[in-house]
Amino acid sequence: MASDNWKIEDSKAKTAKRIAEHAHGNQFPPRRTGQNKFMKDTGKIRVLCVDDHPVVREGIAAIINLQPDMMLAGAAATGGEALERFFELRPDVVLVDLRLPDMSGFDLIKKSKASPRTPASLC
User: Residue 23 has what pLDDT?
Assistant: First the structure.
């Protein structure tokens, strides 16, 4: 039990150090970008963004593209378009708005889960 507490405290200290370095203008150390069974050959997590609002899609794209271990594989504005892109691009992660113009996000998730290769995460 005591060793578990030490691990938690050590982790908190490392996090605090990273935050302090960032606050003083130093960059965070690079993230590990190892390959796993869900990632394509690029070594990056491929994300498909599904939202009917262009501003939201652009904002999510900007955030994802800033991450060294992630990339935007594609974007879609409707459920139908998302299904086409899903089967074409085979992303690792799909971010889905629950209110789409042609179908609900829940219906989109159900249809994409029927695929033989469902992505690692549907959010």
Answer: 55
- Beta carbons within 10 angstroms of residue 47's beta carbon: 26
- In 1-123, alpha helices (H): 2-23, 54-66, 79-89, 105-113
CB 100, CB 52: distance < 8 Å: yes
Q: What predicted TM-score, i.e. pTM, was given to this entire model?
A: 0.62
| Whether the Cβ atoms of residue 80 and residue 102 lie closer than 8 Å to each other | yes
Q: Within the chain, how many helices (H) and strands (E) appear?
A: 4, 4
Nearest to 27 by CA among 66, 64, 83, 60: 66
Which tokens sit at 45?
């997590």
Q: Where are the alpha helices (DSSP H) in 48-123?
A: 54-66, 79-89, 105-113
